[in-house]
Amino acid sequence: MHKALCFFSTALFVATFCTAAGAQQAPKSGSINIDTGAIMTEEEESNYELLLELTAGFNAHDLDKIMGHFAEDASLDMPRGNKPWGTRFIGKDSVRKGLAMRFETTPDVHYGEARHWVSGRLGVSEWLLTGTTREGRKVEVRGCDHYEFRGGKVIRKDSYWKIVE
Predict the structure, then answer these.
(1) How far from the centroid of its chain's Cα atoms is residue 67's Cα?
(2) Does 30 score more than 50 pLDDT?
(3) What are the pLDDT digits (tens) for 73-128?
(4) Structure confidence at residue 9 as a pLDDT band (50, 70, 90)
C-alpha cells in the first residue's frame, strides 16, 4: 500500500505541476525549485536563476545589472499611479527610469525574505521591502513582482504592494 500511495502522490504532483505549467508531458530537466519543491524544465531553471539575479541586482542597487536582464521592448507596471495598472513604463530606457525612481525615493531600499517560483514563461518574486525615504519615513511592506520572460529576458514586470495604513 505504501508503494501505491507514493506512486499516486508522485503522479498527482507531476500531473498538477504539468497542468499548472501548461505542459502536455512531464518536465524533462528534473531540477527541483528549492522554494516550491516543483520539478522545473530547463526554461524554468533559467527563469528561476534570472529571478535570483534580479533580486541580487535590486539589493545591490545596480541598475546596469538589473537592466541587463530586460528586453528592449520590456514594460514595467509600478504599484502607484492614476490608472488601474499603476504607472506603466514601456521600452527599456523608460523601464530604467521607472526603476531608478525606487532607488531615488528610498536610497537604502532592500528586498528581504524573498521567495521565487516559475511556471513556464512566467515567474513571481515575493519580498519584504524595507528602507527609509528621503524624507526620513521608514518603509516596511510586503509585495510581489509578476514577471514574463522571453528568450532569457524580462519582457514584463508588474509590481504589487500591500497597502499599509
Answers:
(1) 14
(2) yes
(3) 999 999 999 999 999 999 999 999 999 999 999 999 999 999 999 999 999 999 99
(4) very low
Taking a C-beta distance cutoff of 8 angstroms, is the pair 67, 95 a contact? Answer: yes
Query: What distances in angstroms separate CA 98 from CA 5, 52, 61, one per listed residue?
Result: 51, 20, 13
- The end-to-end CA distance of the chain, in Å, is 53
Grid cell of 130 as nine digits: 524595507
d(CA 32, CA 124): 16
The phi and psi torsions of 119 (rounded to 5 degrees) equal -145, 100
Q: What is the pTM of this model?
A: 0.78
Question: Which domains does the chain carry?
Answer: 40-161 (3.10.450.50)
Is residue 131 a contact partner of residue 109, using CB atoms and an 8 Å limit?
A: yes
